Recover the amino acids of this structure.
């Protein structure tokens, strides 16, 4: 990832948002983006931003017609709702149905990871979004999409 014109500190900050997808860094390089702010404006938040809709389209393709259920779970996890109960309370999905979706997100799609505390056991397990870009998109882009589309960001 030769982003020669970006400081090491900015690269770390950019990585915290974009994750490790090489194509994203090729875009940063080819567009000459030299700061985190310019990356956010050009690639995510600006009008006709290159990556604004990418996560949504990829995940809708993966999830198919049930995408709204998966989206609500990922949105809850992106906002720090990481326990089964918190995710259920936030999404309205009954706890006895939620396990199926969480298992698919972890095993089939490899988008979330399940973490158990060393001394906590299964009841204390928490769910986290693995991919930086997916987590960022659900936390900041998806929640504000109508605002972004209006151009008033």
């Amino acid at each position: 990832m030769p982003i020669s014109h970006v400081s090491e500190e900015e690269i770390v900050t950019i990585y915290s948002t974009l994750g490790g997808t090489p194509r994203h860094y090729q875009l940063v390089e080819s567009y000459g983006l030299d700061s985190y702010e310019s990356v956010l404006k050009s690639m995510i938040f600006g009008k006709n931003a290159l990556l604004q809709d990418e996560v949504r389209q990829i995940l809708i393709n993966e999830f198919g017609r049930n995408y709204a259920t998966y989206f609500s779970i990922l949105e809850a996890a992106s906002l720090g709702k990481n326990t089964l109960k918190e995710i259920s309370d936030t999404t309205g999905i009954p706890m006895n149905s939620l396990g199926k979706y969480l298992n698919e997100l972890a095993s089939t799609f490899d988008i979330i990871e399940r973490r158990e505390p060393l001394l906590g056991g299964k009841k204390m397990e928490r769910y986290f979004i693995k991919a930086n870009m997916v987590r960022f998109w659900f936390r900041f882009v998806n929640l504000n999409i109508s605002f972004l589309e209006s151009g008033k960001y």
Notes: The mean pLDDT is 88. The longest strand covers residues 112-115. The CA atoms of residues 78 and 140 lie 9 Å apart. Strands lie at 112-115, 126-129.
